[in-house]
């Protein structure tokens, strides 16, 4: 491959990367056109690094899987083989799935924190003299614990419906398992005359203890995760050492039968090892209350 071709491919790769990271969403432009007063569209803001960096960082977090393609293209150009580009195309949906799993886990943690705040807020409103339905209505939106079931739960509380049943439905969403305990406390308070505030206080303490235990385990497993990541990067360190010694490891791996065999076996073992270690770490974490995944 000629130097001119390599330079052209590298420039195209960099341009595609910048477009993916900082490219403007067409929905934003459409909204600005539709909402412009008097039919006049304001000029776009002037370009600056101070404005570009936060946007680029946010887009990079949301579209990190698309970085596999520029990296694969660079390796394909450096190794003069199409195999790295094919590997990047295969890795893109896997990285997207991993990113979505991490985002879902983060949303579940936020939802669990919202349920704890919901219990504390409802108990506080009850002690302030409000009725259970009024207390629920006053804090339902501020905590975000009810999620998509907020409308049905608030409607049941406002019009005398079956609030515990609606809370149990809301508890089926990921991270909201603590709402099943709220439903049980509500049912006992309505049918048995027990204090709802006291029950919610005990439930909040139990949920908070489980959250703290999970946070402690994550802190203890942080070193294990770091070790897994370091071991996963060791093959790249080996390639860098080969280049530093004047060898051409990519040519050996991509243009010789023995290299292709080593690359295939090493890649399979690398993926299997990372997945196995990650599964062991995930098994060490307790599930969120009511989470069956």
Automatic annotation (TrEMBL):
The keyword Cell membrane applies. The chain crosses the membrane at residues 224-246, 258-278. Keywords: Cell membrane, Membrane, Transmembrane, Transmembrane helix. It is a multi-pass membrane protein. It comes from the Bacteria. It is found in: Cell membrane. It holds the Pfam family T2SSF. InterPro entries: T2SS_GspF_dom. The keyword Transmembrane applies. This is Type II secretion system F family protein. It comes from Streptomyces albipurpureus.
């Amino acid at each position: 491959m000629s130097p001119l071709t390599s330079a052209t491919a590298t420039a195209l790769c960099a341009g595609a990367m910048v477009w993916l990271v900082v490219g403007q969403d067409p929905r934003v432009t459409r909204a600005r056109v539709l909402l412009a007063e008097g039919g006049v569209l304001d000029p776009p803001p002037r370009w600056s690094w101070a404005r570009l960096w936060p946007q680029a960082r946010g887009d990079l977090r949301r579209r990190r899987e698309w970085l596999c393609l520029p990296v694969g293209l660079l390796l394909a150009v450096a190794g003069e083989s199409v195999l790295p580009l094919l590997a990047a195309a295969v890795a893109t949906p896997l990285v997207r799935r991993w990113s979505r799993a991490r985002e879902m886990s983060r949303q579940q943690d936020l939802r669990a924190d919202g349920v704890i705040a919901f219990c504390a807020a409802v108990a506080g409103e009850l002690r302030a003299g409000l009725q259970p339905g009024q207390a629920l209505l006053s804090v339902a939106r501020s905590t975000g614990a009810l999620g998509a079931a907020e409308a049905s739960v608030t409607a049941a509380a406002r019009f005398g419906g079956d609030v515990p049943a609606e809370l149990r439905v809301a508890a089926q969403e990921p991270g909201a398992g603590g709402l099943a305990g709220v439903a049980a406390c509500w049912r006992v308070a309505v049918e048995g005359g027990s204090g709802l505030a006291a029950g919610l206080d005990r439930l909040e303490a139990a949920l908070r203890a489980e959250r703290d235990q999970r946070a402690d385990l994550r802190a203890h497993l942080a070193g294990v995760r770091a070790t897994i990541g370091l071991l996963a990067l060791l093959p790249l360190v080996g390639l860098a050492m080969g280049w530093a010694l004047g060898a051409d490891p990519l040519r050996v791996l991509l243009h010789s039968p023995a290299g292709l065999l080593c690359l295939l076996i090493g890649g399979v073992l690398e993926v299997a090892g990372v997945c196995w270690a990650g599964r062991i770490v995930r098994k060490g974490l307790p599930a969120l209350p009511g989470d069956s995944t």
